[in-house]
Amino acid sequence: MRTNHLALVALAVSAFANACVEQTTMLPTASEFIVHAVLDGNLRDQYVIVQRTNGIISAQAPVTGAQVTITAPDGRELIADEVRDSAAIFAARSYQPRVTTVYRISLDKYGVALVPGGTYRLRVRIPADKAEIMGSTVMPAILPAPPNSPVPVVFTRSRDTLSLSWKEVAHAQGYVVTFSSPAETEVVFADSSLTLAGTARVFRIGMNSVVVSAVDVNYYDYFRRSSDVFSGSGLINHLEGGTGVFGSISRLSTMTLDVRQ
Amino acid sequence: MSRTRSLAFMFLLAIVPASAHAQQVDSAAFSALRPDGNNVSALRTNVFLGFGNQPARTVFVTIAGLVGLNLTFDPGLSELDARVTVNPHDRSAAVALQEIARQVSLQVLVSLRGNIILRRAVPQSVADRAPIADTVNWDPQLLPGMAVQATRSERLEFERATNASAIALSAAVLRAAPTFIEPDLLKSIQMMPGIEARSDWSAGFNVRGGEADQSLILIDGYPIYNPFHLGGVFSTFIDPMVGNVELHTGTLPSQYGGRLSGVLDVGSARPTTSERHGTIETSLVSTSASMGRTFSDGDGEWMIAARRTYADAFVDLFKPNAFPYHFQDVHGHLALRGENGTRLSVTGYAGEDVVAGGTGTNGNHGLWRNNIIGATVSRPFTPAAAGSVLGDSTVGEQRLSYTGFQARLALPNYQSRAFNTVSDVRANGTVTRYAGTATTTVGYEVANQALSYLADTPLESFGDFLPIDSLSNAPRSAALYGNHRWRPATSLLLDVGGRFESAEGITGLGLSPRVSLKYFVTNNLALTAGAGRYTQWVHSLGREEEPLQPLQFWVSSARGSKASAVRDAVVGLERWVTPGRLLHVSAFYKKYDALLVPNSVNDPRVFDDEFLPVRGTSYGLDILLRQFEGGPFSGWMAYSYAMNNRVDAAGHQYAPTQDRRHNLNLVGSWQLDSYTFGARMNLASGFPNTPVLGGFARDFYDPATGKWVIDRNNDQYFTGAKNSARLPWYERVDVSLSRPGRIFGFATRPYLSVVNIFNSQNPAGYVYSVDSRVNRGSFPNLPFVPTLGITIAY
Q1: Which residues share a beta bridge with B393?
Q2: Which residues of B438-467 are buried (b: 16+ CB within 10 A; e: fewer)?
Q3: Which of A18, A218, B111, B708 can pair with B115 through a Cys bridge, CB separation 3.0 to 4.6 Å?
Q4: Using the beta-carbon criterion (under 8 Å), do B709 and A1 form an inter-chain contact?
Q5: pLDDT tens readout for residues B39-83
Q6: What is the pLDDT of residues A202-250, one digit of tens each?
Q7: How far is A76 from chain B (nearest CA, A)?
Q8: pTM of the model as a whole
Q9: Cα separation of A168 and A142, whole Å?
């Protein structure tokens, strides 16, 4: 998954990576809450993942007993239910999820729909730690496209070029184009168009699903940059009281490519 | 290396010169001076001088002083009182001495060590009857009534220039330091006080706490934007083409503009004989060849050098395309002298680095190149009579140059590319009037700089290395500047000037005054002071915190933005401890305004967010103790203390990455019999870095499926306050050994050099992994590297 950036990193520092001459094991000194939540206009159930960590991945664990609410644009509070089954929200071919407890907000339960262009506020209270994490997002101002996939288009890598363009969406900070094959998902951030030669690595032989989504500034910032390998800086976090993302997306279009060599 | 070992080495450096001095010997064999300087490097040094109706004695002493050689003569020689006139222009010291000697019928003899003796020339008729061998044994102790006088060029600088923060260096001095793979000017410069580099892999250096893009680097006065090869490991200066070097670390003279912190002006080496001569230098990675000669009785000269690395070709023998990288460059200089002392000089440089070049297996390639072509015309005007507006003499100079830089990186399989182009066309001219002890210069400079940058990629992580953005600007600029240096009293030297600048679309320029003074407390002790304001509107996108900075990508400030500016103040002293030992001490304070530092999280969709404005200060102390050539030991001790801070727009203070508190360099070269032993020790406190406190897994939300995806290779970090930690001390000792010899009649100098002989682990930065524990790996600077090479002169 998203191995694209690793290749680039490897390209730049591989000659030196093995040259790390001194290894030191350090005690983790972080104590942070991590919140991952993305409002998806295509879904009726919205999820919030709350974790805590001391700074090492293996210690990253779900937080139970949190009070999670999302305030809708009309001021109505949508209270999340604590669910001890996270299987529904993780991709099937993903690694084993780290969390078994997630927080679900059923829009059907409240009889509401996500409002394009609406502002939603997230509040996560963790009474045991007297912690509170807050964030807000503005939904891209467009109704989501239906998720069903159209008829596959034959795409020959050695010959074809993929050109996509779409109208700009209010409150969308950027656009994400995902290229999903059975083996891999590649992600490309774009402006209002994208042109890729068939030789690009994103295309895998076989059926490829290409989805264009409008994303809000939180999603865009959180996923467009990563921690720099040397300085540690780079991750953009818009949450207060924790680290992570409370973003929103709206799918614009879907197409299926039958990619051939 | 332990601190104890470092200190022991410092002690050795301190005591060896003393013991070596006792072993000083010189050959008594003196030869008639030849135009090639008799293989004495100082005599091949080019000097710019002009004299009008001066006693020959004064002229000889001045020339010997300029190149730092001892001069011996009989003060009773009446020829020395004869008055001579020399048109101002460049020539080698040997040619200059011969020129004067011919005028007054004296003969110049030179020892193997460069000691000079003047004697009355043997009349031709006598010479015909009793020819004198070209080489004679001459024992100066046998001459009765001899006077010995020596004036070094540094001594003349001390007496005539304020030089609050300037260091003049000869190529010979710079070559005395041990080398990494091959002699390199910029590596040697980094051993001077006030100079440091972020890492051994950085393309750039920092001057007195300034950012790496604040140094103006010039070849014969023409700018070069990326004077580096192989990611900063080598510079573009081909060693045999390096002549004299002028380094300014503060109170920059008014003719220099566009940079905030430093100026490095590298003069091309000049040929010294009408016979074609040159060198071939071979190191482990490259070979360079130089060639040059004078012609038309010294009225013309040319010199050219070229270099190419061959590691790619060598590795190809074993595994094709395994190391698809090379660099090559060529540097040439031509000068012609015409009627009335008019001089035309042309300098050209072209160099490029090539990675893969289309032969790579995946189509990825990179290319970056520097090109310079510049011409200068100068002419002296000598007044017909005293009291002329031309003063004693006036020299006009007009310069025209083009500098280009192009970088192209392409990763087609990743749909990623980056371009940077710089085109710098500039004209400038000066008129300098010499009258008594006063020198007045007025000048202008107009420039058209076109800078464009484009990085285009769908990969967000590309932004860790280069900003993903598109920038283009072509600011035209103009400047008027002036400078007046005079001596209002015997003990006081004043230098007052200013630079008025304007650049299209840039605010905050205007007048930048510059002033410096020197007060002579005694003949050997002077106090200096200076202050000035400097501005800059072109910047590098390179991030200081990255230990790997293979290139500087240059862009201009956006239209309507304020130019970066700094004001500095310097006080110091210069003291001649002995005739061959000079101490510089200089304290500085700099205050920056509207500095621009690259924004590590810039958004390509947002205009003008590539840089973040900061302000800040730097202050500190530089100490330089130089032991000049002339004995068996020469070298220098350079120590810098600095405190730097920056304040971002939100008011957060932090130490910039180049904030190095202590930096000590001990550099020595010992002549022991026919061997030359060189050593350098660098002990420096660590640069700031941002500590990583831990990390977490950032899972990815896939908009296509509406599900989260566990990403085990996308760990993110929690960091402490920016630059709140420090890298460990940097400790490194380099040594070298060389011995001159002859092979097939050619003069040779094979050398062996060992970098980091104790293999000290000097982290340039840290990389982390945070899976089941926090692991910190150090990213190293140069390890133990023995290298060898040979220089062949013909």
Answers
A1: B434
A2: ebbbbbbbebebbbbbebebbbbbbbbbbb
A3: B111
A4: yes
A5: 676 787 767 666 766 778 878 887 887 777 778 887 778 888 887
A6: 888 999 989 999 999 999 999 988 888 888 888 999 999 999 999 999 9
A7: 24
A8: 0.82
A9: 10
